[in-house]
Amino acid sequence: MSHSWTVPASSALRARALGPIASFDPESTPGFDGDKDSGTELLAERGRALADLQELLYANGRSGDHRSVLLVLQGMDTAGKGGIVRHVGGLVDPQGLSIKGFGKPTPEELQHDFLWRIRKALPPAGRIGIFDRSHYEDVLPVRVHNLVPRSEWEKRYAIINQFESELVASGTTVIKCCLVVSKDEQKKRLAERLDRPDKYWKYNPGDIDERAHWDDYLEAYQAIFDLTDHDAAPWYVIPANRKWFSRLAVCELLIDALSGLELDWPKADFDVESEKKRLAAAG
Ligand code: AMP
Ligand code: MG
């Protein structure tokens, strides 16, 4: 492999290491010196590493280990969250995944605190959970449109930090990825949705109205990175104009998270030698 990461993805993409989100370049490929072909080739190779690690996590979960991994995906409409679920999630055994998308809260969900639906969807032991949107929506559209009073959403950053630190303490490795598309690229992707009958289902007329609030969303994302990026539950900012790069980057970050668990194959809870003898003697 001639092209590779020159800086580990976990350093090159960490929110804390970057400047303001408003001047972030969604075309860039931080830490990676290859092009689309080499990136796509590397993704296939790294996908096998990810699949092996996922199997280890699953095997340990089956053997009583309580740990899990949670990948939180955020990003503006068309940023490619669904593509990450399909193309990175698709690299591993689907039985090991726990995928949940969060849309506008239902009337029932609105009767509870904003973390209620999140807690119900957390990954079980041994699984990789993927959230397509998350509790961060409660400080994104909710903040931009004051869907609850400012005094209410302002408190949520601290509540989220507390929630995530408890989650981490209970054995869930949390990584948070924000996919960043440029406003122009979003326009192109929305136009494509309108041009292709097989993409109408993804189109939502409200997405155009949200574009009018682009800068407010950037400000809301900046507040998230400033207030909720911690070593225990880090934020990564992923340029997403090039889909091959965002997929490669998220795959690499997941590998990094799983490797950090230092998992080994679970020991047999039976005597291997005597089981071999029993099997040999069995009819
Ligand atoms: P999609 O991900 O394209 O299916 O769209 C889901 C929509 O639900 C997006 O417009 C989100 O901003 C919106 N949404 C998700 N969670 C919340 C929330 N807690 N409050 C308000 N809107 C939300
Ligand atoms: Mg949408």
TrEMBL record:
The keyword Transferase applies. Residues 35-259 form the Polyphosphate kinase-2-related domain. Keywords: Kinase, Transferase. InterPro entries: P-loop_NTPase, Polyphosphate_phosphotransfera, PPK2-rel_1, PPK2-related. This is Polyphosphate kinase-2-related domain-containing protein. It comes from Gordonia paraffinivorans NBRC 108238.
